[in-house]
Design brief:
106 residues, mainly alpha, 2 domains
C-alpha cells in the first residue's frame, strides 16, 4: 500500500461504519413505523380535498345568493369565493400539521 492509501483508510472505515449505523437505524424505524396503506393515503387526500372544496363552494353559494338578492353581478361572489378558498387552505394546512405532530408524539 502506498502512503496516500494508508492515510485514507481510517477515514473510509469511519464513513462506512457511519453509513452502516444509519442504515440500521432506518431499517429499525421502518419496522417500528410501517408506511400507511394506499387506502389510508387516499383517505387523507380526500379529507384534504374536501376541506378545501367545501368552504370554497359555501363562499361561492353565499356570494351568489347575496348577488341575486342585491342585484349585483359578482360583487359578493368573487370575494366570498376567495375567502372560502383561503379558509379551506388554512384549515387543510392546520390539519396536516396536526397529523404530523400526532405522528411524532406517538
Amino acid at each position: 500500500m502506498n502512503e496516500p492509501d494508508k492515510l485514507n483508510a481510517p477515514i473510509d472505515s469511519e464513513r462506512i461504519a457511519r453509513a452502516a449505523r444509519q442504515a440500521s437505524s432506518r431499517e429499525r424505524l421502518a419496522r417500528n413505523e410501517p408506511e400507511p396503506s394506499l387506502g389510508s393515503r387516499l383517505g387523507q387526500i380526500g379529507i384534504l380535498g374536501w376541506s378545501i372544496v367545501i368552504p370554497t363552494l359555501l363562499g361561492l353559494a353565499i356570494g351568489h345568493w347575496l348577488d341575486r338578492y342585491f342585484g349585483t353581478r359578482v360583487f359578493f361572489s368573487a370575494p366570498l369565493l376567495m375567502v372560502g378558498a383561503a379558509f379551506g387552505l388554512w384549515s387543510a394546512w392546520k390539519w396536516m400539521h396536526r397529523q404530523i405532530r400526532s405522528k411524532h408524539h406517538d
